[in-house]
């Protein structure tokens, strides 16, 4: 019987209700694979950080921190199936994400990576982030939000004070990001297209969807995932115009909470396909 290792995300990267939901989607995916005959061993990101990693033929990886990713990189280099790959999880760290997406033609807000302890960038650079004198977003520059204050909107006048709050919490880098107007949607996908779903951020999953071009949304989401090397992903897109999606954020292996069962079946089916292809290639 083939063995898989499921690595659960550190609680620090799953704030508030995400902790339960992140655990639940991995549990559901593991259950699908166990029904196919896999024997599962469950471990944590903390264990991986400390160099304790059981041997297996397949790894389900929800780790988001750099230490765990470094421990997992040799598996990726050796061609062992790891979903998501540690390199793609690292690509979601905001300072890397901004660089990779900024080097592409993908629609993405103007963003500056900036040392939180440094003085604000020159006025002309700040004005470029807020040409209509709207708010500017300040986001921690490494991993995704661990707490609500890791992502905030502020006026240009209050940006310096907001920056000091990040410095005070020991966050060395921030992303100063242009605000993109329009409705925001949350999307979720699996790289081969067997699963894709979305809903309006304001109305929630059960609410009315905003009138946007779904085909362009899907194309943007999958292009971003491909640039970063993600296989199981989710994120946020703003629509300043109904047919003009702009990616705001994307991350590795979200919770898929509103449609967990369907997502778990699709993720498990994709992993089974990828593993079989690896074995016969």
Q: In the CATH classification, which architecture of the largest domain applies?
A: 3-Layer(aba) Sandwich
- End-to-end separation: 21 Å
Q: Mean pLDDT, nearest integer?
A: 92
Q: What is the number of independent domains?
A: 3
CATH class of the largest domain: Alpha Beta
Strand order, biggest sheet? 2-1-3-4
Low-confidence stretches: none
Residues in β-strands, percent: 25-35%
Key structural traits:
281 residues, alpha/beta, Rossmann fold, 3 domains, four-stranded parallel β-sheet, four-stranded antiparallel β-sheet, 9 helices, 25% strand
Description:
This protein has 281 residues and is an alpha/beta fold. The protein folds into three domains: 3-84 and 259-280, Rossmann fold (3-Layer(aba) Sandwich); 111-178; 184-252, no CATH class. Helix content is 37%, strand content 25%. It has nine helices and twelve strands. The chain has helices spanning 18-35, 45-49, 66-77, 86-91, 94-102, 123-129, 159-168, 214-228, 260-280, and strands at 3-8, 39-44, 58-61, 81-83, 111-115, 136-140, 151-154, 173-178, 184-190, 195-200, 232-241, 244-252. The strands form three sheets. A four-stranded parallel β-sheet has the order 2-1-3-4. Strands 5-8-6-7 form a four-stranded antiparallel β-sheet, sandwiched between helices. It has a four-stranded antiparallel β-sheet with strand order 10-9-11-12, with helices on both faces. Helix 1 (18-35) crosses helix 9. The longest helix has 21 residues, at 260-280. The chain starts with a strand and ends with a helix. The model has no long low-confidence stretch (mean pLDDT 92).
């Amino acid at each position: 019987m083939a063995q898989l290792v499921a690595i659960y995300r550190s609680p620090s990267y799953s704030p508030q209700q995400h902790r339960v939901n992140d655990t639940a989607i991995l549990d559901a995916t593991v259950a699908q694979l166990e029904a196919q005959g896999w024997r599962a061993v469950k471990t944590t990101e903390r264990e991986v950080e400390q160099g304790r990693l059981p041997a297996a033929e397949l790894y389900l990886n929800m780790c988001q921190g750099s230490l765990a990713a470094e421990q997992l990189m040799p598996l990726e280099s050796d061609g062992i199936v790891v979903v998501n790959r540690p390199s793609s999880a690292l690509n979601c760290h905001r300072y890397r994400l901004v660089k990779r997406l900024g080097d592409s033609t993908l629609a993405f807000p103007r963003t500056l990576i900036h040392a939180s302890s440094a003085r604000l960038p020159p006025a002309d650079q700040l004005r470029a982030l807020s040409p209509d004198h709207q708010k500017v977003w300040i986001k921690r520059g490494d991993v995704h939000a661990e707490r609500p204050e890791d992502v905030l909107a502020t006026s240009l006048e209050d940006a310096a004070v907001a920056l000091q709050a990040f410095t005070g919490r020991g966050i060395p880098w921030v992303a100063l990001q242009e605000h993109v107007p329009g409705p925001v949607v949350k999307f979720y996908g699996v790289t081969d297209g067997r699963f894709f779903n979305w809903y309006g951020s304001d109305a929630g999953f059960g609410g009315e969807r905003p009138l946007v071009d779904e085909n362009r949304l899907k194309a943007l989401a999958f292009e971003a995932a491909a640039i970063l090397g993600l296989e199981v992903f989710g994120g946020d897109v703003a629509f300043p115009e109904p047919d003009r999606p702009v990616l705001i954020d994307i991350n590795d292996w979200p919770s898929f909470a509103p449609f967990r069962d369907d997502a778990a079946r699709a993720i498990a089916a994709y992993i089974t396909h990828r593993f079989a292809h690896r074995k016969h290639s």
